[in-house]
Write a structure and sequence with these properties.
Layout (H helix, E strand, L loop, with lengths): L5 H5 L3 E5 L5 E5 L13 H14 L6 E9 L8 E10 L3 E10 L2 E11 L36 E7 L15 E7 L7 H7 L6 H6 L9 E6 L3 H7 L4 E11 L2 E9 L5 E8 L1
Antiparallel strand pairs: 1-2, 2-4, 3-6, 3-9, 4-5, 5-6, 7-8, 8-10, 9-12, 10-11, 11-12
Length: about 270
């Protein structure tokens, strides 16, 4: 008998209650396999919140964007996610989501969904010229936080050597990445992967320093058809910081499909 994929195991949510207005509460737990330096990997937390909206019976359309604010660290104990449809328009929906653990809110989010339609289209940000994924070796994950083992990462630029005397003047990180073991892509998996970048300060300073994401915004350009066509192929991911200042830094990232479609734009403050 085949075992469920680690991502699907962690994204399993159990309905707990539904109010008269349709607010739905789901229960779940993040597996230790997605642990980070402090608490779970941020990408898996984001994916859980998105999955909760996708499981709400009031949901229509597909995600356009989600903003997630991390108010407190989580652990691997039981958690509760509340989804609230704030506004239901003809072609768009606005959602509020909160994640609670041990009786306190730890993460909040807002998200916009939309029923997509055909329109004029163009892509101004092309897939950059990079070596093919099958020409690169997988990044060894021994000694890294547990979540990294759930991804096959093939680095192109932005290695963390932990040699402070070789600091970089550029925080760009570019890599091919997919779930490990390979898994067909969907919106929660895509959102989880969009947070796969090692902290930009690790690259700049070539040393580990305490760091954590405060807020994360992701925009989905992908269509369901594009996700289906992607299957379990590698994605190209690239991100860089814009400024380090007053104890914070931000980063802008993009993810392309194997065939060059821009699937995600993402921005976070750390």
């Amino acid at each position: 008998m085949s075992h469920p994929h680690p991502l699907d195991q962690t994204l399993t949510l159990t309905p707990q209650s539904t109010s008269a207005t349709g607010d739905a509460v789901f229960g779940g737990r993040i597996l230790p396999a997605y642990g980070n330096m402090i608490g779970p990997y941020g990408g898996i937390i984001a994916a859980l919140l998105l999955k909760a909206i996708l499981q709400n019976d009031q949901r229509k359309g597909d995600p356009l964007g989600i903003t997630i604010n991390f108010a407190a660290p989580l652990d691997d104990s039981e958690l509760s996610i509340t989804t609230q449809l704030v506004r239901n328009n003809r072609s768009s929906q606005h959602w509020n989501v909160s994640l609670s653990q041990q009786g306190q809110i730890a993460v909040t989010a807002s998200s916009v969904f939309s029923v997509q339609r055909d329109s004029w289209a163009d892509q101004e940000l092309p897939l950059p010229p990079v070596p093919a994924a099958d020409t690169l070796k997988s990044l060894p994950t021994a000694g890294m936080p547990a979540w990294a083992a759930n991804y096959d990462m093939r680095m192109i630029k932005g290695w963390v050597t932990l040699q402070p005397d070789h600091q970089s003047d550029d925080s760009t990180r570019t890599l091919w990445v997919r779930d490990n073991p390979p898994r067909a892509l969907d919106f929660p998996a895509l959102l989880a992967i969009s947070d796969c970048f090692f902290p930009c300060i690790f690259v700049r300073k070539q040393q580990l320093v305490p760091t954590g994401t405060i807020t994360l915004t992701t925009y989905f350009h992908a269509t369901p058809d594009e996700l289906a066509q992607q299957g379990d192929q590698f994605l190209l991911a690239s991100a860089r910081a814009n400024r380090f200042h007053n104890g914070f830094s931000d980063q802008t990232g993009h993810i392309w499909s194997a065939t060059g479609e821009l699937l995600v734009s993402t921005h976070q403050l750390v």
